[in-house]
Design a protein that fits this description.
By secondary structure, this protein is of the alpha/beta class. It has 12 helices and 24 strands. Strands 1, 2, 10, 11, 12, 13 and 24 form a 7-stranded mixed sheet that branches. Strands 7, 16, 17, 18, 19, 22 and 23 form a 7-stranded antiparallel sheet that branches. It has a two-stranded antiparallel ribbon with strand order 3-4. Helix 1 runs parallel beside helix 12 and helix 10 crosses helix 11. Flavin-adenine dinucleotide (FAD) binds next to helix 1, strand 11, helix 7 and helix 12.
């Protein structure tokens, strides 16, 4: 019997599991669909693309995108302990103060969330919080072309900032990464593994949640599939969905919580009509501007035995690169409350998500629309929990997103042409010299834009009709059920989404512990009704 069942051991789920079980009275079960994270490619920072389209990845595709010449985009999401923090590019960016203030929820203002960031951080650079479980470090072996990019961006007019997380100053700087001693430091490393021996924590891997079970409007458990059998985990306190921006709304809808019309059309009995579930999907859309490299320094040379030896023996060399080694935050027009464009520098031709090995040396500046106006949705394809939902991000529906990215392409090209970059930047590869006219650049965007892997917003927090969770992350109109993950962000942050997701989970842990104290102690519920051969009460990750 558990007090709290957490679905998903990703960025948010790991924070919750670690923080909640600090209180020995709270018994926590974590259900994770993916396998354990004992895998070398997870630990090696530069190897993340090796995990794409493997059992460690949900390997989603979007629906054909009207704004992108009807292309279907590949969407990787982590499917293992640590979730997407186990396959991401490790960039640690909190977001700007204006992001949290724009949520317009007093408890989530910048002043209120800043202490939550600080308490989770352990910044080896000494600039952010110290003493928390999330290790943040500078890269150990910055590529020479990355130094040139930073100098070139300054030559192009950007301010050099010591820390891209500076809440006041904006400009170009080196990327802080979630790494410790040169290896990836996922949310599982920070929060889950240190807690794994606690007697009040049970983690099941290979456990795919199918739906939340209700008695009336109270969530009382989770039905999940493990080893080919259906099991039931009953809960005396709360069910927490931390399955991410794709799966949390999918699970709600499969459980009868969502837009009533959509659910009825699929024959799902409606437990609660919540029209906002699955809507408000936002993502950072990005395009790569690529030149050849005059010097053979780029990461196309990373995959070699000497580099592997350097990594294994000294935790140094190209394999410690997170690929996105430097970044810049820029305002494309005056009067904005924060930057609307990010440039990310990668000392490699970053093509097709890194899935295809490149032969020639090259350099990439990725331009990212930081505050996209386009909004999409996630809907059920069928009532089969193993079926992937329909993902429609509606990329480039808002002309402002096209304008910002066009500005990004121009600025990236200007940076490549600076004196500071001349020792490295060679011939234009993408978009190619012939693409100069505005219409051609826009056509290039529609042909080439990809996800920056930051979907949020499908179970948005708020108080209006479309809000799915209230400011304490409780699913509106129901009891005993919260959503805690990137899906609750009402508006996407101007940065990268891992840090704000973990911050949200830090706050959620406080809220859940407070509820547990108020109910003190959680009332014992009916014993788990596990079928014969079902899940053992305690299984460590490793399956
Ligand atoms: C390739 C890539 C690169 C990225 N780079 C960066 C970066 O450099 N910096 C940054 O800040 N952010 C980055 N991100 C984004 C960031 O990692 C995510 O925003 C963040 O991890 C989301 O956390 P989450 O808890 O919402 O979801 P996730 O971390 O995705 O966790 C969801 C978990 O739930 C599990 N799950 C899903 N469905 C079920 C089910 N039915 N039953 C049981 N378990 C289930 C999943 O397997 C997963 O473990 C990147 C993401 C990707 C994919």
């Amino acid at each position: 019997m558990y007090d709290v069942v957490i679905v998903g051991a990703g960025s948010a789920g790991c924070v919750l599991a670690g923080r909640l079980t600090e209180d020995p009275r709270i018994r926590v079960l974590v259900l994770e669909a993916g396998p354990s994270d004992r895998k070398m490619e997870i630990k090696i920072p530069a190897a993340f693309a090796k995990l794409f389209k493997t059992p460690y990845d949900w390997d989603y595709s979007t629906a054909p995108q009207n704004g992108l010449d009807h292309r279907e985009l590949y969407w990787p999401r982590g499917r293992t302990l640590g979730g997407s923090s186990s396959i991401n590019t490790q960039m640690y960016v909190r977001g700007r103060p204006a992001d949290f203030d724009a949520w317009a929820l007093p408890a989530w203002s910048w002043e209120r969330v800043r202490p939550l960031f600080s308490r989770m951080e352990n910044d080896q650079r000494g600039r952010l919080g110290r003493g928390g479980p999330v290790h943040i470090a500078p890269l150990r072996d910055t590529n020479p072309a990355t130094h040139a990019f930073v100098r070139a961006a300054v030559e192009a007019g950007l301010e050099l900032v010591e820390d891209v997380n500076d809440p006041v100053r904006e400009g170009v700087g080196y990327t802080p990464v979630t790494q410790r001693n040169g290896r990836r430091w996922s949310a599982a490393d920070a929060y889950l593994h240190p807690a794994i021996r606690r007697p009040n924590l049970t983690v099941l891997t290979g456990a795919h949640a199918r739906r939340v079970l209700f008695e009336g409007t109270r969530a009382v458990g989770v039905e999940y599939l493990k080893d080919g059998a259906v099991h039931l985990a009953r809960v005396t306190g709360e069910v927490i969905l931390s399955a991410g921006t794709v799966s949390s709304p999918q699970l709600l809808m499969l459980s009868g919580v969502g837009p009533a019309g959509h659910l009825r059309a699929l024959g799902i009995e409606v437990v609660h009509d919540l029209p906002g579930v699955g809507r408000n999907l936002q993502d950072h859309v990005a395009v790569a501007v690529i030149v050849s490299s005059k010097q053979p320094v780029s990461l196309v040379a990373a995959e070699s035995l000497p580099n592997l030896a350097r990594f294994v023996l000294f935790r140094k060399g190209m394999l410690t690169s997170n690929v996105g080694e430097a970044c810049a935050f820029v305002r494309t027009r005056p009067g904005l409350p924060g930057p609307d464009l990010e440039l990310i520098f990668a000392p490699v031709p970053f093509v097709d998500h890194g899935l295809v090995k490149q032969e020639g040396h090259g350099l990439t500046i990725g331009a990212v629309a930081l505050q996209p106006g386009s909004r999409g949705a996630i809907a059920l394809r069928s009532t089969d929990p193993l079926d992937k939902p329909v993902i429609s991000p509606n990329y480039l529906a808002d002309p402002e997103d096209v304008r910002v990215l066009s500005e990004g392409v121009k600025l990236a090209r200007r940076i490549f042409r600076t004196t500071a970059f001349q020792a490295f930047a060679g011939k234009d590869i993408e978009p190619g010299v012939e693409v100069q006219a505005d219409a051609d650049v826009q056509a290039f965007l529609r042909q080439q834009c990809e996800t920056l892997y930051h979907p949020v917003g499908t179970c948005a927090m708020g108080t209006g009709r479309e809000a799915v969770v209230d400011p304490e992350l409780r699913v509106r109109g129901l009891q005993g059920l919260r959503v805690v993950d990137a899906s609750v962000m009402p508006v996407i942050t101007r940065g990268h989404t891992n840090a704000p997701t973990m911050m949200i989970a830090e706050r959620a842990a406080d809220l859940i512990r407070r509820s547990a104290r108020d109910a003190a102690p959680f009332r014992p519920g009916p014993a788990d009704r596990l079928p014969a051969g079902g899940a053992k009460p305690r299984v460590r990750p490793g399956s």
